[in-house]
Design a protein that fits this description.
Layout: E1 2-7, H1 10-14, H2 16-30, E2 34-38, H3 42-53, E3 63-65, E4 89-92, E5 101-105, H4 111-115, E6 125-130, H5 134-149, E7 153-158
Parallel strand pairs: 1-6, 1-7, 2-4, 2-5, 3-4, 5-6
Length: about 160
């Protein structure tokens, strides 16, 4: 599995939502796979939900919020979620069962933590976002070491 770390500049970090929207659109344009944006912060989740609908007047990014990890929502069960019936971009605090696609991780945890609680999930690529503040950099180093120990292919980009 390929893990890419995006180390954000101060200006990109200030437009964090815009960067996530841009990265999601780029991932969709370059792949036929679904994109999962992992978010544990409910405020960020709601704000990103709005931002994806209003990205550009001519090209919004179709997406769907997953039900909370501990609940089920009408029509979408955690255990029986099928990526083929969902929108190209998913937002949530967990990984759906059988997910096979690209993960944009905004959480402080490595994605393999979410994979252990999910039935048969195998992301093909993980995009880690690192803000320029000390705590985000420290969390990024922890995630890097975790992925390195698992033998994943690691790359990083300064944006």
């Amino acid at each position: 599995m390929n893990i890419s770390f995006y180390v954000l500049s101060e200006s990109k970090a200030q437009d964090f939502l815009g960067f996530i929207c841009q990265l999601s659109q780029t991932a969709l344009n370059k792949s036929t796979q679904s994109v999962l944006i992992l978010i544990e912060d409910e405020t960020l989740l709601s704000t990103l939900d709005e931002a994806l609908w209003a990205q550009e007047a001519t090209s919004f990014i179709p997406h769907q919020r997953l039900p909370n990890h501990n609940t089920e929502s009408a029509g979408i069960g955690i255990a029986d979620t099928d990526n083929k019936s969902l929108t190209p971009v998913l937002l949530g605090n967990h990984m759906p069962a059988d997910f096979k696609g690209i993960v944009i991780n905004t959480t402080i945890h490595p994605v393999n933590r979410f994979m252990t609680t999910t039935n048969n999930a195998h992301p093909t690529r993980i995009l880690e976002l690192i803000k320029p503040d000390p705590s985000s950099v420290q969390e990024g180093r922890h995630k890097y070491k975790s992925y390195q120990q698992l033998g994943y292919e690691l790359t990083h980009f300064k944006v």
